[in-house]
């Protein structure tokens, strides 16, 4: 994956440079702290936030909406699994004008649809076992979720597996055709992901390695839930928008943990941590679940390294 100003679209299910089932990304800004760059470009870029569920992403989406209103920009475009194809098709056919903000779980690839304008992906991450546990109990407490959670935590985890890995392999397949004198794009209704491959590490491992090697190229900046305020400061410094100033009080986690039918609100951190640690140990002892979450664990480790590098460089710069 190489950054460029092009806005071409991948029309096949494989990255031709690697022969892997990965999106071909051409228009994005590399990590602002690790790559040589000028922050001027980032300050003028379209922002594309990848929402990894139960990783602080809802708070960031609320923050983006706050910033949009402050700047009097058009509303953020939400790219969910069921909207990514139609949004992509509209952008390709110039039916809609690119927003300054895109956000959602299916945002990967949108920067190649904005006519070559500077565009930056960013995200928030969370330790995968803890993210999965939070997702499960959020659902059990009545929160919206796919997949459903009318089963055990183990069954839920095995039905979900590596969410972030899946998001990073999303491809919206589109083809151009002529109707009379007019060329137009049509996109498949449902995006493709790595899940179209059999669950075989021999096939999935090369795709994972490719992603790990390119994370600091794909994301202009990454945040981490455990360091929420620091993440906001990094976003603010990178993009020149007041993420920290306006949104440091935004973060909340409204899910509920359920123990023997009784709800304990997540703000009771001691209870939450006891449950989480117990459930996490249980999940980690299951070899099928370790295999299931393997890709996201590796991506999290690499992204956490990137986060620490960003933090070190940021602290040096702001104290100059």
UniProtKB/TrEMBL annotation:
Signal peptide residues are: none
Membrane spanning residue stretches: none
Organism superkingdom? Eukaryota
What Gene3D superfamilies does the annotation carry?
A: P-loop containing nucleotide triphosphate hydrolases
Note the InterPro entries from the entry. Answer: Golvesin-related_Golgi, P-loop_NTPase
The protein, known as: Sulfotransferase
């Amino acid at each position: 994956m190489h950054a460029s100003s092009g806005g071409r679209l991948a029309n096949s299910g494989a990255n031709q440079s690697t022969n892997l089932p990965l999106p071909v990304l051409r228009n994005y800004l590399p990590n602002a702290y690790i790559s040589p760059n000028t922050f001027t470009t980032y300050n003028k870029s379209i922002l594309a936030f990848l929402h990894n569920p139960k990783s602080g992403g809802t708070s960031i989406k609320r923050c983006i909406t706050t910033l949009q209103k402050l700047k009097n920009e058009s509303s953020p475009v939400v790219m969910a699994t069921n909207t990514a194809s139609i949004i992509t098709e509209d952008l390709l056919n110039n039916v809609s004008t690119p927003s300054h903000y895109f956000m959602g779980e299916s945002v990967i690839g949108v920067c190649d649809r904005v006519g070559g304008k500077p565009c930056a992906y960013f995200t928030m991450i969370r330790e995968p076992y803890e993210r999965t546990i939070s997702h499960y109990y959020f659902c059990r407490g009545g929160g919206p979720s796919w997949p459903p959670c009318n089963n055990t935590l183990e069954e839920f985890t095995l039905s979900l597996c590596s969410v972030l890995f899946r998001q990073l392999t999303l491809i919206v397949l589109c083809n151009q055709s002529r109707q009379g004198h007019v060329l137009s794009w049509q996109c498949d209704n449902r995006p493709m992901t790595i899940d179209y491959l059999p669950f075989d590490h021999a096939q999935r491992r090369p795709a994972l390695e490719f992603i790990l090697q390119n994370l600091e190229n794909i994301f202009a900046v990454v945040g981490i839930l455990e360091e929420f305020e620091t993440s906001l400061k990094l976003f603010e410094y990178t993009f020149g928008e007041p993420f920290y100033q306006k949104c440091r009080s935004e973060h909340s986690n409204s899910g509920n943990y359920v123990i023997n039918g009784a709800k304990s609100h997540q703000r009771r951190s001691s209870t939450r941590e006891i449950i989480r640690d117990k459930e996490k140990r249980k999940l980690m002892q299951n070899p099928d679940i370790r295999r299931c979450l393997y890709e996201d664990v590796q991506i999290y480790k690499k992204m956490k390294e990137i986060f620490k590098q960003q933090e070190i460089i940021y602290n040096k710069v702001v104290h100059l």
